[in-house]
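user: Here is a favour to ask of a fellow structure person. I have my own habits and do not want them to colour yours. Could you put it straight underneath, so I can go through it closely?

assistant:
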Amino acid sequence: MLKILEDLVTLARERKKNPVEGSYTNKLLEDETLSKEKVLEEIDELIESVEKNTNKIHEAADVFYHLIIYLEKSGIMIEEVMNELKQRKK
């Protein structure tokens, strides 16, 4: 299950190193404003879908995707985030 998230992080890192013309992922990686706006938009859509009990899984997947891309764009390594969460474990 977590392999899918690893694959997404790998994709983001590969696209940073080797951009693919026309790639939506590359568009997000290259445009910080767009990337940030999409994270905020997708979180709003997730909250709305939970409140209305519609498309929750789809919207949650969008949040994960856009957040991972935004973190990579911002130079925040997912490994560091996971270590932070591990340190918080009591």
Observations:
- The chain has a mean pLDDT of 95.
- The first helix runs from residue 2 to 17.
- The two ends are 24 Å apart (CA to CA).
- The helical segments are 2-17, 24-30, 32-52, 56-73, 78-88.
